[in-house]
Amino acid sequence: MTHPADIRRAPSSPPVLETALALGAAGLPVLPLRKGKVPFANCPACLYTSCGGRPHMKTPGPCTCPKPCHGWAAATTDPTVIQSGTWRRTWGQAGAVAYHPGGAGLTVVDLDNADAITWARENLPATQTVATTRGEHWIYLGTMPSANGVRPGVDIKSTMSYARWLGPGTGTMAKLPDVVRALIVKEFAKARPTPQTIGMPKLAGGGECPHRAPAYLNRGIAMAEQRITEASSAVHATVYRTFLAVLSAHGRCGCLTDTHVGRLFAAAQAKGETARHCTDAWTNARTKLGM
After folding, report:
1. Which residue, 22, 175, 218, 239, shows the most beta carbons closer than 10 Å to its own?
2. How many other β-carbons are positioned within 10 Å of the β-carbon of residue 206?
3. 236-266: pLDDT as tens digits
4. What is the pLDDT of residue 48?
5. Residue 233, CB half-sphere, CA atoms under 13 Å: how many?
6. Pairing mode of beta strands 96-99, 106-111
């Protein structure tokens, strides 16, 4: 995990290659951004997909494609890769340096306007703060799924995401609070269709529903999250099939809670799905099962 002091020793201004090397040495996996603040298309085999091996492990790799990969999965701390022939040419065209917060054990709460900043000051613990063009980045120790629009003007950048390096900022980095983790669950719970009442099935002998065993249900949700995060293609179809499987196993006995569904939706959005896509997939799966 990156130490806050290491980030402070990193530079806050160009040239970008020197900045990238310093950040990599401080433990931040870095990648170059175009002047439009988007990643370079380094790897045609992975372009516009969430490559990077096992993203649920919260690291950028390993990746089987020709390196360096695309987007957040290209982020690295390896000075050999950063200075490689491919990237050395890229740094000359780069407009900024980005880093993968989740790969360094961090979460960035991206506050995009004054109202969002006011909300953060009233609801979140103080932490290391970096000024942005329109707002602030609040940086916490700890990782979580990334998501955009968790509330007006607030994005979460952690695993499978990148943030622009804008300098070390001010303040002392705090541990990621539960109130930030809960933002994703609350947002997706609101987006979830209102469930119809499903009666608990009566079992022979009057026994309890076996799905009520926490270990059984939690294992099923964890496997579903992993299936979604490991999808390297056909993400829409994978999300729908996973929702269908979860509902088939757990949807008729009343075991699923908003927290469980929120975890599934968060995993899907971390792969690029929107809240609308998640809601549609959930609705279609319930319709398919006659629920």
Report:
1. 239
2. 6
3. 788 888 888 888 877 777 677 778 888 888 8
4. 45
5. 3
6. unpaired
- Here the tokens at position 129 are 């703060």
Which among 39, 136, 47, 42 is positioned nearest to 95, based on CA atoms? 39
Amino acid 136 reads E
CA distances to 232, 244, 272 from 237, in Å? 11, 10, 13
Nearest to 249 by CA among 270, 232, 224: 224
Q: Which of 217, 264, 206 is nearest to 238 (CA)?
A: 264
User: Which amino acid does the sequence have at 114?
Assistant: A
Q: Is a pLDDT exceeding 50 seen at residue 50?
A: no
d(CA 89, CA 153) in angstroms, rounded, equals 35
CA dihedral 158, 164, 166, 172 (to 10 degrees): 0
For every residue of 147-164, which 3-state class applies, written as one string?
EEEEECCEEEEEEECCEE
Cα gap 116→109, rounded to integer Å: 10
